[in-house]
Amino acid sequence: MELNPTSYVVLGSLSFGPRSGYDIKQLADISTRHFWAISYGQIYPELRRLSASGLVSAEDASRGTRHRTVYHLTDRGRQMLNEWVSEPALTKVEIRDEMLLKLFFADAVPRKDTVRLLEVMRRRHREIAAGLRENEPMAAAQQHEMKYEVMRFGIALHEWCADWYGKLAADLERGRGAR
Amino acid sequence: MELNPTSYVVLGSLSFGPRSGYDIKQLADISTRHFWAISYGQIYPELRRLSASGLVSAEDASRGTRHRTVYHLTDRGRQMLNEWVSEPALTKVEIRDEMLLKLFFADAVPRKDTVRLLEVMRRRHREIAAGLRENEPMAAAQQHEMKYEVMRFGIALHEWCADWYGKLAADLERGRGAR
DNA sequence: TCCTTCATGTAACTAGTTACATGATTAT
DNA sequence: ATAATCATGTAACTAGTTACATGAAGGA
Question: Which residues contact B143 (CB under 8 A, 6 or more apart)?
């Protein structure tokens, strides 16, 4: 069975303890979603595939009539996860940002529209940083150092972006034609 | 007809002058590819769709027996592009980075593996920045200010990332347990 | 001669999103 | 009551990649 990054998001989420598909989604939405988003449409089929390959194991955790399945990593699953982490294969960062695309093509529109665009972008990154900061204490409290470092990276990155866009907006506003 | 960001990459590329599908791909690979990548499998069908909606217009530019079609923006195409740019709708940045994902799950692997991972990441971002810098003079030479600013943003961003990863690698190496 | 670049295109595939359906439990 | 959250799942769709085919032109 072929594992892709999405499989590892699932495996990695389970490395912190047994979880349901629903739990995995909740966790991913406040953590890995900033560098690898996943949806229910991927999670449930993936859990069954991983289960079939013996990398995770399903356990019934229904409460009364409400059915619920929690999965946990098997030894082989944990081993696969750690092997993947330790292999430093150079892979590409992929960024898709429609607003940055707009900025790239903004030479033909009025300057004030560009400034407004930059202000929205600035706010966007401030908000992403704020969202990350909200569950920073959670990450700090646990003994997961790298998890915490990645969170710090995300906060610093988005704040850096916000500042950059803010500076450019200010430069454009006080009218610069020459560089 | 519905236009998506990919359509605007095509439209935007043509806003700099008439181009073939092949030309669009070459241009996108050194510019927009850093925040919105596109492939031939999208370009050629897209050009026909845009042509059918009258946003671009095809012209035969064959040289001898070698056939070639160049497209140029129509007035409506240019208008659509500028309207899209001027509309500052808040859209999400999407990042997919397998290496950052590894870093997030790196608490269970030997520290030296994490340091190695960070060093590869650092190199990766240095290289992206260097690649961007290579065609920076090209962007500066033209009177496309925003195009140049976005290029500068990319260079600064990837250098910032390289530095951050480098610092973390250094911190980890001289053994830090407490923060 | 042979390799690279120019040039266009598509079929098959892989990945990912969205919308929907279902229904229990818990908090207001 | 009723809204929100927990919980699982899939079908249909949209997007994007990869691999391949074809072949001319130009340079080494």
Answer: A107
- The whole-angstrom separation of Cα A24 and Cα A26 is 5
Q: Which of B53, B86, B119 is the last residue of a domain?
A: B86
CA gap A78, A74 in Å, rounded: 6
> Which chain C positions come under 7 Å from a protein C-beta?
6-12, 14-20, 23-26
| Closest-CA distance of chain B to residue A44, Å | 20
Q: Which residue of A has its CA nearest to B110?
A: A86
- Report pLDDT for A179: 40
Q: pLDDT tens digits for A24-70? A: 999 999 999 999 999 999 999 999 999 999 999 999 998 888 889 99
Total H helices, total E strands in chain A: 8, 3
**A86 CB inside 7 Å of strand C:** no
B141 at interface of A, judged by CB pairs closer than 8 A: no
Nearest CA in chain A to B164: A153
Domain check: are A74 and A29 in the same one?
yes
Contact between chains at B94 and A97 (C-beta distance less than 8 A): yes
Q: Using the beta-carbon criterion (under 8 Å), do A116 and B88 form an inter-chain contact?
A: yes
Quote the CA–CA distance of A90 and A149 in Å, as a whole number. 20
The CATH number of the domain where A58 resides is what?
1.10.10.10
| pLDDT, tens digit, 9 for 90 and up, residues B71-108 | 999 999 999 999 999 999 999 999 999 999 999 999 99
**Side-chain-facing half-sphere of B50: CA atoms under 13 Å:** 32
Are residues B81 and B104 located together in one domain of the fold? no
Domain extent for B109: 98-173
The per-residue pLDDT for A16 is: 94
Q: Specify the pTM.
A: 0.94
Only one residue has tokens 């999405």, namely A6
